[in-house]
Amino acid sequence: MTFVFMHFLICTLHRYLRRLKLHATVLKNKFAINNTLGFILRGGNQVSNASSVTNGIISTNASNATAHWFSESERNDFVSVYPYLAEDLTKSPLCDDTIVMDRIRQLLTHNLTHGKKLVGLSTLLLYKSIEHEHNLTEHNVRLANIMSWCLQMLHTSFVLTDDMIDSSKTRRGMPCWYLLEDVGSTAINDATWLASAICTILKKYFHNHNHYVQILESFKKLQKETILGQIIDEIYTGNRVVNLLNNRTYTTIMKYKTATPCQAPITFALHLTGRNDELLYNKGSKILGEMGHYIQVQNDYFDCFEDPTITGKKGSDIEGGKCTWLIVDAMERSSSSQRHILEEHYGKKNPESVKAVRNLYETLQLRKQYKVYEDEFKTRIRTYIEEVPINATREVFYKILNSIGKKTS
């Protein structure tokens, strides 16, 4: 009886101490969280160099690379919506535990208040470019900002899982979320919650919108297809069968994992207008899909060749055995002996194997091949943009193109 009581007492004490530790971590984080939120509301701009995590405290001079391809008023309107959405998601009647809600605030702040927010801002600017001027009321523009944040949340949920799967160390110059103390594998739950929380926001602000059902269906379709892309990516990652890493495989992964999310801004911009403009949708989807492919090729190239202090992320594609533009191009250009090097070393984590693959990339002049690809893409995409019938929308696409050509994180 005494043993049972002592066991119960020890377990209770352990749970209490763990809860106390979490509470202390949350309190320590409040200062960093408030500073970060204040930073984004001031529209700050950083350049990523270093970051660290001590007892759950984020210490960083990492980049909040908020793009300069939109006006001051648009930036202020966009970032000013965030605190209201954060409040909507941290005062849920489903949970009144203050420690849990503080953890949610930390999740939102760490993962949503940094980076270019390309997906969200593209949606906002495309909407404003295609909406009739008399419909650009304060209320409708606010809804567009809210919708843009919802898309940014969904994109972030994919990033959280991607970072775990890829064993990434940094994102936008900061430690990946799953690497923070007391997060770990629970980041999977955080990513799932972040995606599901979108429905809470949509229900509150869009339940009377004429395209509410279409908006919900489009979010579900976007989530399903992007996750399918992640699944396909993982099937071919690290399986050590390098011959399977071909252009067909890469194109399939890009179709779902990258092109589909990048096409979302035109889909939701049109939903916001309430119009079904098939011509604009098709042209916009083609442009954004091509841009998505370029963004992924750019990411693949930077993962291998760019300085992590510039990209905000340390490369791991070679050791992870990822299906990238570089390995696909290398397989197509390699001789039989060079293929043997790739088969022997690609997807292995030891430094010697990584170096062997990098050296072969240099021998095959993949830096030069990337420049050729980039020049061809920019020529092609400008042709597509010129076919867009609305002047203001063409300008937005050019702004997006200029933004993705200046990679920071």
Write out key terms for the chains shown.
409 residues; mainly alpha; two-stranded antiparallel ribbon; two-stranded antiparallel sheet; 4 strands; globular
Topology, please?
Layout: H1 2-41, E1 51-54, E2 57-60, H2 72-90, H3 98-112, H4 118-130, H5 138-166, E3 170-171, E4 174-175, H6 187-206, H7 212-236, H8 247-273, H9 278-305, H10 308-311, H11 317-320, H12 325-333, H13 336-345, H14 351-363, H15 366-386, H16 391-404
Antiparallel strand pairs: 1-2, 3-4
Strand content is under 5%
Oligomeric organization of the protein chains: single chain
Rounded to an integer in angstroms, the radius of gyration calculated over CA atoms is 23 Å
Q: What is the CA-CA span between the terminal residues? A: 59 Å
Model regions low in confidence, pLDDT < 50 over at least 5 residues: 3-9, 16-67
Structural class assignment:
mainly alpha
Envelope shape: globular
Major beta sheet, strand line-up: 1-2
Helix run count = 16
